Amino acid sequence: MPKTYPRPKLVIFDCDGVLIDSEPVFNAVLVQNLARHGLRLTPEQSQLTFTGLAMTELARMASQMGAVLPQDWITEVYDEAYALLRKGVPLIPGVMTVIRRLDEENIPCCIVSNGSEEKMQITLGPHGLWDRFHPNAMFSAHTLKVAKPDPEIFLTAAAHFDVQARDCVVIEDSATGARGAARAGMQCFGYAANTQETTLLAEDAEIFHHMKDLPRLLGLC
Questions:
Q1: For 95-137, what is each residue's pLDDT tens digit?
Q2: How far apart are CA 68 and CA 36, in angstroms?
Q3: Which of 23, 31, 182, 210 is the most exposed place for a label (fewest CB within 10 A)?
Q4: φ, ψ at 16 (rounded to 5°)
Q5: 76-103 burial, b if ≥16 CB within 10 A, otherwise e?
Q6: Other Cβ atoms closer than 10 A to 19
Q7: How many CA atoms lie within 13 A of 94 on its CB side?
Q8: Of all residues in the chain, what percent carry a pLDDT higher than 70?
Q9: Using H for helix, E for strand and C for coil, what is the string for the chain?
Q10: In the β-sheet with 138-140, what is the strand arrangement from edge to edge?
Q11: Rounded Cα–Cα distance for residues 130 and 64 (Å)
Q12: Chain segment 36-64, per-residue pLDDT in tens
């Protein structure tokens, strides 16, 4: 019999890899860029190592692995990635159905991301989700100056909606995000359609592979 969970009072979505299928584009840019700076990785190695990290942490890790990065490296990578992302990236299949279902049930939802607001505007804007979430339901590490896995970014979102951490559910696709949710005392569902589920399981996330399964996990059906 499928496991059921209490209905949440707030659903917190990660952005890249959960709402929007932007990870392959950004990862491809990252692999090509780092190769120019002395660090050669396969796309699989890059995704496993860097997915979910704030850019400052990503730069630190890449440097430790042998990359020689210029001072303006983060700006450089973002400029290259934004150019490709502006060509359009698809939504994760089924995510709009989940958001509409939450609206029907009057359960608020928001975005908590280690990415910049500019990046979210580029990727979410064409699908109407920038206007849906910005500014009152969007929490960016770049704006708040605190990033996952620090639980403060999740707790800030919960406080904005006046919801206790125990009544929140976080939807993540990275170990970094799942770790932050756990540290915040929040239930995490790990979307593992495009990522290694073992990394999410290691952070005590409840795994699912299709957005069509999420309403059941959220207690909506």
A1: 999 999 999 999 999 999 999 999 999 999 999 999 999 999 9
A2: 9
A3: 210
A4: -65, 125
A5: ebbebbbeebeeebebbeebbebbeebe
A6: 27
A7: 11
A8: 98
A9: CCCCCCCCCEEEECCECCCECCHHHHHHHHHHHHHHCCCCCCHHHHHHHHCCCCHHHHHHHHHHCCCCCCCCHHHHHHHHHHHHHCCCCCECCCHHHHHHHHHHCCCCEEEEECCCHHHHHHHHHHHCHHHHHCCCCEEEHHHHCCCCCCCHHHHHHHHHCCCCHHHEEEEECCHHHHHHHHHCCCEEEEECCCCCHHHHHCCCCEEECCHHHHHHHCCCC
A10: 138-140, 109-113, 10-13, 168-172, 187-191, 206-208
A11: 35
A12: 999 999 988 998 889 888 899 999 999 99
Q: Are strands 187-191 and 168-172 parallel, antiparallel or unpaired?
A: parallel
CA angle 144, 151, 18 (to 5 degrees): 80
Q: Looking at this protein, which amino acid is placed at residue 100? A: R
The token pair at 211 is 């957005």
